[in-house]
Every structure is written in structure tokens, then in C-alpha cells.
């Protein structure tokens, strides 16, 4: 007997995770951004991270053709930013506090960390693609993380 999608989603909601916003550009140089909690380090040498992106999202194709992407690890002050990038809004980058990173992509200000990555590989994984990036530049700041648990935002209590 196989577990249903709802059962699996419910079980996975019990795993607390940090929240990131991934930024990339598509082939036409348009910016794309998406909220992602499926993020992990992979290797220290070389420094690799992975993100898992559903194939039906608007940012999937942009990532699939991207040479670079940025991982922005959100702070507890950035719940609105997470919600903005989780939406289908075409205006996600309007009036956003950001700067341009060394790889030419926006990095969001106010984050706990910004990782500028060179695309290393893409791995087909069911209804998602696992994108692996080699970290070229890392920027680290102080603060508390934005946490996602049981389909809601949490803090460190």
C-alpha cells in the first residue's frame, strides 16, 4: 500500500526547516524568485548546496537554464518576503531591499546568509528537480531564522 500525497505532505510538515528565497534569471534575463524550504548543504569541498524545485513552478524553467542562482536564507523579520516569493505575483522584486551580488544576481538584504552559486547539476526527481550549486560567494549576518513548521511560520522560542 502506498502513502497518499496528503499523508506524505502531512508527515513532512513535522520537519521544521529554515526558509530561503532562490533568485535566478531566465534565458531572456528576466528575474525569477521562489520561496524554498527544500534546501540543504551537500559538500564542504567543494562547497555545494541543493534546492528542490517543483517542475510546475514558474521559476523551474528559469533555474533549468540558469548558470547561477542565489540562495537567500531568511531571517525571522522576513516573513512578508517569504510570502511574496511564494505567490504567483509578477511584481515580486518591486520595492525590495536588495543589492547586486558578484555573480550579477540580486541578493536580498536583511537575510542571515546569501549564497551566490554556480549551477553544477540538475537531477530529475519525480515531480521535482534537484538543482545543485557550487557556492562561489557567501555572505553571513547575525539574527534569528525564519522557520517553517506544520504549514506555518515559527520563531525560536
Helix content: 10-25%
- What is the CA–CA distance across the termini? 39 Å
- H/E topology pattern: HEEEEEHEHEEEEEE
Whole-number mean pLDDT? 95
The 3D shape can be described as globular
> Can you tell me the CATH architecture?
Roll
Structural class: mainly beta
CATH class descriptor name: Mainly Beta
The total tally of domains equals 1
- SS element count, helices: 3
Q: Tell how many strands the DSSP assignment holds.
A: 12
Brief characterization of the structure:
By secondary structure, this protein is mainly beta. The chain has helices at 5-12, 58-64, 79-86; strands at residues 17-18, 20-25, 31-36, 39-43, 48-54, 68-73, 98-100, 106-108, 113-125, 128-140, 147-149, 152-154.
Describe this structure in words.
With 157 residues, this protein is mainly β. The chain has a single domain (5-154), classed as Electron Transport, Fmn-binding Protein, Chain A (Pnp Oxidase, Chain A, Roll), CATH 2.30.110. Helix content is 15%, strand content 45%. The chain has 3 helices and 12 strands. It has helices at 5-12, 58-64, 79-86, and strands at residues 17-18, 20-25, 31-36, 39-43, 48-54, 68-73, 98-100, 106-108, 113-125, 128-140, 147-149, 152-154. The strands form 3 sheets. The protein has a 7-stranded antiparallel beta sheet. A 3-stranded antiparallel beta sheet has the order 1-11-12, with no helix packed on it. β2 and β3 form a beta hairpin.
